[in-house]
What we know:
GO biological process, one term: phospholipid biosynthetic process
Structural class: alpha+beta
Largest sheet: 6 strands, antiparallel
Pfam family, one: YegS_C
GO molecular function, one term: kinase activity
Bound molecules: adenosine-5'-triphosphate
Number of strands: 18
CATH topology of the largest domain: Tumour Suppressor Smad4
Strand content: 35-45%
Strand order of the largest sheet: 6-5-18-15-8-9
Helix content: 25-40%
InterPro entries: ATP-NAD_kinase_N, Diacylglycerol/lipid_kinase, Diacylglycerol_kinase_cat_dom, Lipid_Phosphate_FormReg, NAD/diacylglycerol_kinase_sf, YegS/DAGK_C
Number of helices: 8
Oligomer: single chain
Radius of gyration: 19 Å
Number of domains: 2
Distance between the termini: 12 Å
Cofactor: Mg(2+)
CATH architecture of the largest domain: Sandwich
Shape: globular
Amino acid sequence: MKQKPERFFFIINPIAGVRSKEDIPRKIKEVFSGSEKYYEIAFTKFKGHATELAQEAVNNNFDAVVAVGGDGTINEVATGLIGQTPALGIIPLGSGNGLARHLKVPIHIQNSIKYLLDSAPVSIDHCRLNNLPFFCTAGVGFDALIGKVFSEQKTRGFSTYLKTVITEYKSYKCETYKISLDGKEIEMEAFLLSFANASQYGNNVFIAPQASLQDGYIDVCMMHPFPSSSLLNLGFKLFTKKVNKFHYLDIIKAKNIEIERESSGPVHLDGEPVYMDSRLKISIVPNSLRVLSI
Ligand SMILES: Nc1ncnc2c1ncn2[C@@H]1O[C@H](COP(=O)(O)OP(=O)(O)OP(=O)(O)O)[C@@H](O)[C@H]1O
């Protein structure tokens, strides 16, 4: 039987998602008081702080470090846990919660806290883009633009996300990419290129329905330009795990990917925008992160 963690360290991002985080310590106390488990809680004070806190938790021999927030918070916490023994836990309080949803962590807060008590570590892969880690999805093209514009909005949450997508779609111009997938060369004009470790962006929008966190492969999703008359069909297929059947999308599994785009520009890593060079290298590191799962 796998060993359940005894010592938990919670890292709360106060600005993730739309919900206040003030009552989270009380909710953790309510659920954990019936157990013998030890825990500590910290709130992040700035972007990047969660990685420092996670590294301290590793040094202080915690068994589990729980990211309380969305995929950006998970990215920061998990970065401090790569190759380490303590496992990542999640209380999903972000806007999209892609990795939590893939792992079937309950979205209801109390249930996600109870889930931590019942779960044990399993190993998953993580991916790197120009050596920066990501755990759920990364991408260039339209989804990178959305990551950038979304991060500049005053509000978060799904409705802000949807508004951003609709506004940006109207004026978006596709770029041409040279792509190498484990040595196989392709040149194509693309609406977006997504690199998926997990199956979804978040909010049950499945860009790579067949993706596995444990198969040692990245699902490379290459979307060709498509007519606006196909938008509804695309939306339907994204939400029903059928986008692999969308006429304008190719999905290929690969371990090492190289991209050359027309110019430098935004990419996103777990929804967080980063400005990068025109040349991108994406790779997978199998069995490199322990996560709490039932
Ligand atoms: N104390 C803080 N002050 C400001 N920004 C922070 C703080 N702590 C973390 N951040 C940043 O908050 C951003 C948003 O966090 P996160 O991605 O978890 O929420 P989200 O975008 O609402 O959810 P999702 O990624 O699921 O869509 C991240 O870029 C993270 O670096």
